[in-house]
Design brief:
Blueprint lengths: L1 H11 L31 H14 L2 H6 L4 H6 L1 H4 L3 H6 L1 H23 L4 E7 L2 E5 L2 E5 L2 E6 L5 E4 L4 E5 L4 E4 L7
Antiparallel strand pairs: 1-4, 2-3, 3-6, 4-5, 6-7
Length: 179
């Protein structure tokens, strides 16, 4: 039951292809400030490089630090949520559910790729969605080369990354291992 609820939460916040009508959701009624994302990095590539470094070092703490924090999640909840049920459930419940699911996915990423060293070649989001003060980079795949064996791989371990337009900072919304 809980896993089904967590899967629903992941679908309610920051997944899919946008709002019901395919347009941008309304901007939150409260003013969204220009403060950078807490712990945000300067680019999508920087987030990917930091994730790969954390995996190579098997450093769960540094990987968790790449994730958006609860305050920023609430700050951009209206833009991140894309389902009417998310608004009804509220940002606190969705945050709790999504952060737990992401923690499980982070553990899965460490089990699958921890201790391996990769060279980043490209970051390839499935979709890029402008939403008011943020841009959502959905399910970015990482094209990498395994430094030990030279094998080219396409790692799918990031859920979504948000870019805060005003400050130019990027933060990971969730880990989501696929494939």
């Amino acid at each position: 039951m809980l896993s089904g609820l967590l899967a629903t939460a992941g679908g309610l916040a920051c997944s899919g292809s946008g709002g019901q009508d395919g347009g941008e959701p309304p901007v939150a009624a409260e003013a969204v400030d220009d403060a950078p994302l807490r712990g945000g990095l300067a680019s999508l590539d920087a987030v990917a490089e930091a994730a790969l470094a954390g995996l190579a070092a098997e450093d769960r703490e540094s990987l968790a630090a790449l994730l958006i924090d609860g305050a920023d999640f609430r700050r951009f909840f209206a833009e991140l949520s894309n389902h009417p049920s998310a608004a009804q459930m509220g940002p606190d419940l969705i945050w709790d559910m999504q952060s737990r699911e992401s923690a499980d996915e982070l553990d899965r990423a460490l089990r699958s790729f921890g201790g391996r060293s990769f060279e980043l070649r490209a970051v390839e989001p499935e979709a890029v969605e402008p939403r008011g003060p943020i841009v959502i980079h959905r399910r970015p795949a990482l094209r990498v080369v395994d430094r030990e064996g030279g094998e080219e791989l396409r790692l799918q371990l990031l859920g979504s990354v948000i870019e805060h337009r005003a400050s130019g900072t990027f933060a990971l919304v969730s880990y989501r291992v696929r494939g």
